[in-house]
Design brief:
InterPro entries: Acyl_CoA_acyltransferase (IPR016181), GNAT_dom (IPR000182)
Shape: globular
Protein name: GCN5 family acetyltransferase
Low-confidence stretches: none
CATH topology of the largest domain: Aminopeptidase
Number of helices: 7
CATH class of the largest domain: Alpha Beta
Mean pLDDT: 94
Keywords: Transferase
CATH superfamily of the largest domain: Gcn5-related N-acetyltransferase (GNAT)
Radius of gyration: 18 Å
GO molecular function, one term: acyltransferase activity, transferring groups other than amino-acyl groups
Structural class: alpha+beta
Length: 261
């Protein structure tokens, strides 16, 4: 895999040319910024920026004004190669709060081993309705140790309005949800995006995460996608590396909320 070429392709397809995620969201282009805008229940974010030292501060101030006037919290999704090099410091100076950095990891699906299966006693179940989403949220809340916020509503909306753009799965041990994961599919791109995968503590280290990745990868391959993309935590990065994923960059969410100012 040619790292720089794939990173440039990711920037163009998944950031600059991004599509709205649902019926209540839209994509707006404001000078050197591409933003994803919706209601307070949606994910609001700056997805891409083409800035330099002379334009960055004004662009940051404009986004704060724009979202602030609409009463919306939002995220500036910063990648390690974004310019200027001190963009993160400028965001902090403007009142943004950085979260833990993650690693942008990508794999060519044809190069992956896709034979991983869940451990005995665990089955992977497609989520197709609200009851299934509730099972996934139960697993996610237990795995990550905090409420999932508006995730439930967003997933239900996706299943209702654009089910072709998402695949959601929950790992069940008997009647108990022990892990959950989803995959976003964007027509016109070569990337399928993997999200979630958190497993409750008692079931970690048994191969559920690997099985969920392989299961989704097989589906993506059948649908014609070439690459899988993950924003990987420190916990999932070594697993993904062993599966054949490559680290292309870092990505850090910078959060802005009117309540913090």
């Amino acid at each position: 895999m040619e790292h720089q070429a794939v990173l440039a392709l990711f920037d163009r397809q998944m950031r600059h040319d991004v599509r709205p995620s649902g019926p209540t969201t839209r994509i707006e282009r404001d000078g050197g910024v591409v933003r994803h805008v919706g209601t307070a229940e949606d994910w609001n974010a700056v997805m891409w920026s083409g800035l330099d030292a002379d334009t960055a501060d004004a662009a940051i101030a404009e986004q704060v004004r724009y979202f602030g006037e609409r009463g919306l919290e939002f995220e500036w999704k910063l990648y390690g190669h974004d310019q200027p090099a001190d963009l993160g410091e400028r965001l902090v100076a403007a009142g943004f709060v950085p979260e833990e950095p993650e690693t942008l990891m990508v794999a060519a699906i044809k190069e992956l081993r896709l034979d991983a299966e869940p451990p005995e006693g665990v089955r992977l179940v497609p989520v197709v309705d609200e009851a299934g989403v509730d099972l996934l949220i139960r697993a996610a809340d237990a795995a990550f140790g905090h409420p999932s916020g508006s995730l439930r509503n967003r997933l239900v909306a996706q299943l209702t309005t654009a089910p072709e753009r998402v695949r959601i799965f929950v790992a069940m041990a008997g009647d108990e949800p022990v892990s959950g994961a989803r995959m976003d599919l964007e027509e016109g791109t070569v990337f399928a995006s993997l999200w979630g995968g958190g497993t409750v503590a008692a079931w970690r280290g048994k191969g559920i995460y690997r099985a969920l990745v392989a299961y989704r990868a097989r589906i993506a391959a059948d649908l014609g996608y070439e690459y899988l993309q993950v924003d990987a935590s420190d916990q999932s990065r070594p697993i993904l590396h062993r599966l054949g994923f490559t680290a292309l960059d870092t990505t850090t969410p910078y959060q802005w909320s009117a309540g913090t100012h």
